[in-house]
Amino acid sequence: MNRKLLFWMMLSFANTRLISAWTSRQRKNAAGLLCLAASLRTTTSHCAPTIPEEWLEYDHYNGVTISLNQSMNDFATALQNSLQQWKHEGRKGIWLQIPEAHAAHVGSAVAAGFRFHLVQQNTLILSAWLPSFDDPTAISRLPAGPTHQVGVGCLVFHPDDSSKMLVVQEKTGPAAAWSLWKMPTGLTDAGEDIHAAAERELKEETGLTAACRGILQFRQAHPTQLKDNSKRVYRTHSDLFFVCVLQLLEKEIVLEACPDEIAAIQWMSVEDYCRQERWQSSPVYQEMNRVIQEAQLSHMMQPYTLELGFGRGTNALYHSRPPQSQL
Amino acid sequence: MNRKLLFWMMLSFANTRLISAWTSRQRKNAAGLLCLAASLRTTTSHCAPTIPEEWLEYDHYNGVTISLNQSMNDFATALQNSLQQWKHEGRKGIWLQIPEAHAAHVGSAVAAGFRFHLVQQNTLILSAWLPSFDDPTAISRLPAGPTHQVGVGCLVFHPDDSSKMLVVQEKTGPAAAWSLWKMPTGLTDAGEDIHAAAERELKEETGLTAACRGILQFRQAHPTQLKDNSKRVYRTHSDLFFVCVLQLLEKEIVLEACPDEIAAIQWMSVEDYCRQERWQSSPVYQEMNRVIQEAQLSHMMQPYTLELGFGRGTNALYHSRPPQSQL
């Protein structure tokens, strides 16, 4: 595996800028030569159109990113010329960012050899692995896009009776059809930490303010189920589901079901929750329920938010060691 | 949050098929009426083109998925007509799947009001939230695409001396520039469990066969670093990095560095590993290194692979309770 982690990419950004500045100068020289070569060939002084330099950014994996932020009449020709030039220079991975406003250019990009890669911030990112243009067996080393959605379940034991847990019935979806009592659940928002998502979801669905004390367990699921009986390809990504234990911060507990999503809300004995018929046929849920019944703080990975240090911002870290201050 | 988990979507698929069969009949009646209305208006017998019924699949969230698997001359008109009809029927989320072969239609789709949503299996998935066509404040309830890549680090203690761990130096990337000794790392492949990815990566980078005994800790990182100083939008997804502890299954240990990726490989004292200069400025890495130094099996979440039961396939489950058989 030569695809390296996003983390390293982020750290390496400072380096990239230096290399960009250098390669940018080299590129201008190369563009001049191409222009000269073209004018010699055609005996006119008109240069073959290429992608404008100010749309480009170079990376230290020998790649180029094109940001298509305005329309261009001869985009298809310019793209093909630039690809030829980059192949000649020995470049490898080319990224092309097309925002929705310029979606009409997507066809030309695919015709030039680009593949759909991912969508982010309403922008379609295409990629071309230049070595595979001449050698179809050359495998792209460009990192794949994101593969997982991340969900949370909120496990809240009653502060005065830990044999009871908070459960909801949903208004729509399969759990509603089964009248299943379940933990409040939801997906993390973009850029949101797991423990923060659990606190937000609990607040949204039940009105309760709580602090996430730890992750009790988590489940990874891949959607093999859709493959052979559906025309649909969307939502075929994997799912990580974290069971978070939260401690209420309210002095007085008032349950307020979210009117859009939650049909009913109550405290239920953990035993009754686990005995629900729906779980009985599922080894995964039986095991998850056993872990819930035996839950203790010492079994959990607690969340810590720490400065990255050699880059901006913080990371969330989850582990089950006591904090150093308590040792 | 009304966006529900992938898991529920997969479970609900059987229901969807039943509803599809029913709505499909209703739709044919509706299409007939539209055709009749069109013929009355235009006083010709030619029907307004709509998206062919056999390209459609209905879901029980009141949505429609269009699979564009062949080219269509009047696609732009047909799409607009179908959208009008679905709006009239009170439908909400419309998905449109465009494979690379039909990339030329992407422009028409965006012009008709579709947004880029995600890319999967080399297919661009666009979406349109019909309620927002008339009311721009209506917020889409369609689930976002995947948000995270999942990486693993392989922590292998020497079988005869647990004060030593296996480390590598990489050939390329920032860690190489810093001459950093690090755990073998990599990204999970599509559909691959975390513990399986750790075993595969270790094998690929070092030649060693091992079994993943547990997850010691994990880190969640969001790429705030790229936002304000780069034109690039790609790779702005989040990262989950799991530190996996592996136990060697080899009788005789022979270290074989992967020639493409690994420059050097050795056993190193955990203390020396943690003392490397690069970590000193990073609170995140200092804490991760402390947890590595104190690693014990009881601190880990062990992997279990279990049948889902009420659906096909297995899930991976991670928790730190002893298996039931050992209680």
Oligomeric nature of the chains: homodimer
- How many DSSP H or I helices of chain A? 9
Q: Mind telling me the C-alpha Rg of chain A?
A: 27 Å
- Termini gap of chain A: 39 Å
Q: How would you name the CATH homologous superfamily of the largest domain in chain A?
A: Nucleoside Triphosphate Pyrophosphohydrolase
Give the overall form of chain A. elongated
Strand content of chain A: 25-35%
Largest interface here, residues on each chain?
Answer: A-B, 125 and 125 residues
| CATH class (first level) name of the largest domain in chain A | Alpha Beta
**What is the number of domains of chain A?**
2
Describe the biggest sheet of chain A? 6 strands, mixed
Poorly predicted regions of chain A are: 1-45
Mean pLDDT of chain A: 82
Structural class of chain A: alpha+beta
Secondary structure tally: strands of chain A = 13
Helix content of chain A: 25-40%
Characteristics of this structure?
homodimer; Aminopeptidase; 2 domains; six-stranded mixed sheet; five-stranded mixed sheet; 9 helices; elongated; disordered N terminus
